[in-house]
């Protein structure tokens, strides 16, 4: 029985403190699996207090013990400035070293090297868009992402796809999303690798916003008949509002599935790699009813799209 299995047995008896102590002791003797589990607990604030610095250190130690999983997560933390200053170049160096033995890392390096980036991972040239609508403000960016980047996002998301769901306020259980019938995968800090991180920085540059104000990138898949019914992306409350939405169309081997602005009649079907940026709020920050939009039902094939909601302020300190 592994130390992680023993820790979960202790959790089942209600002894979270002893479970964490068991993982700490195993990690101190070089058990990378225990360090990764402890890193996840501290990241999520599950079973132990949330501690991003301790989480980062656990993943760093696991990586240096030879765990590719630990090293991948630590590289994400390093690039994105989780619990310390962001170090894009340091993350890049570690990824290059990992790429000598790890195919996933090698693929990331191949894609990142094809991007024109500065030393912090931002695009050297701000993406240029063209306006489709003034009210709401809607802009399109032709070829925002390369075909290779789009394929990488699809391949990375596929194993993680799960039915879109929400928490039932009465039962506390997950139930199918009443508005969005797609499958989705999300990429928070621990899985925001250098390719995804560079794309998020590109979105920030295109939208003129700070990168930490973006929510985790989501990849959505729509099968025939699936849709995103008419809705607003803006939140009902005014606290740290979702002011912008960026969509990136990842493929075009489908029919139907257009993005449709229900109040204005604007309909958009992006080619592979095209971006669509639109404002969710009006001049004084209130939700803009003209920004109501839908993802129309897919008629044939599979539609893949990347989505990032952008807040007016950073979500939380990293």
What does this entry look like structurally?
The protein has 318 residues and is α+β, with helices and mostly antiparallel strands. The chain has 2 domains: 3-113, Tetratricopeptide repeat domain (Serine Threonine Protein Phosphatase 5, Tetratricopeptide repeat, Alpha Horseshoe), CATH 1.25.40; 130-311, q2cbj1_9rhob like domain (Jelly Rolls), CATH 2.60.120.620. The protein has helices at residues 3-12, 16-28, 32-44, 52-64, 68-80, 88-99, 103-113, 147-157, 194-207, and strands spanning 130-133, 138-141, 162-163, 165-167, 174-176, 183-187, 217-222, 228-231, 242-249, 254-256, 259-261, 267-268, 275-279, 293-295, 298-301, 303-311. The protein has an 8-stranded antiparallel sheet, covered by helices on one side. A 4-stranded antiparallel sheet has the order 8-14-11-12, with no helix packed on it. Strand 4 and strand 5 (174-176) form a beta hairpin. The mean pLDDT is 94.
